[in-house]
Amino acid sequence: MELLEVGTAAVLVEFGDLDSTLAHFRALDRARPVGVWELVPAARTVLVRFAPDTISRDKVVRWVRSTTPDTAAGDSTAEEILIPVHYDGPDLGEVAELTGLSTDEVIAAHTDTPWTVAFGGFTAGFGYLTGGDTRLRVPRQSEPRTSVPTGAVGLAGEFSGIYPRSSPGGWQLIGRTDEQMWDPSRTPPALLRPGVTVRFHAV
């Protein structure tokens, strides 16, 4: 673990891998001291934002260093969201070939195992989902598409994700959903937030 100063009201905590990052994020999120108002996880970091007039940087650093990571595989109390998916993506057949599964088995693998939102990024409302069936770990497309449609469900490496709006992208597209990932009129605007459990089901 390495801690870096970010301005006067934040600390960036760096970890060695995604599992360590998520284990520390879970533990920190459950025991925030007064004055720590936001935790922002990423693939290898957690940004800790705090109010300097309420808690000092030294106290924040001591809290982070003294927190024992939560290595539990899942959280039974986490919010769970069901995402209906039309599994008709243009790369479904390619994913089947890459994994050695049939298309039906790819769909079953994607729907039978719960996923967890590890962190957000890329664009507003995009959640990087982890913890799914390891057989679905496939590389990105060799040439990214210039336009991926809103609601496209994809796979890339250890992650699954849903494009919240039309944008360029290189993930393997296996389906699409009509669920709205980002809605500024909703509180919070993002449907998929770090720590949320996601289950997909075929429609």
Overview features:
single chain; 203 residues; alpha+beta; Cyclophilin; 2 domains; four-stranded antiparallel sheet; 13 strands
What is the CATH top level name of the largest domain? Mainly Beta
Number of strands: 13
Order of helices and strands: EEHEEHEHHEEEEEEEE
Tally of helical runs: 4
Across the major sheet, the strand order is: 1-2-4-3
Q: What is the CATH-assigned architecture of the largest domain?
A: Beta Barrel
- CA-CA gap between termini: 43 Å
Low-confidence stretches: none
- Largest sheet report: 4 strands, antiparallel
**Which percent range describes the beta-strand content?**
25-35%
Structural class: alpha+beta
Total of domains: 2
CATH superfamily of the largest domain: Cyclophilin-like
* Principal-axes shape call: elongated
Alpha carbon gyration radius: 18 Å
What is the topological layout?
Blueprint: E1 2-5, E2 10-14, H1 18-30, E3 36-41, E4 45-50, H2 57-66, E5 80-85, H3 92-99, H4 103-112, E6 115-120, E7 127-130, E8 145-148, E9 152-156, E10 159-162, E11 167-169, E12 172-176, E13 197-202
Parallel strand pairs: 5-13
Antiparallel strand pairs: 1-2, 2-4, 3-4, 6-7, 6-13, 8-11, 9-10, 9-12
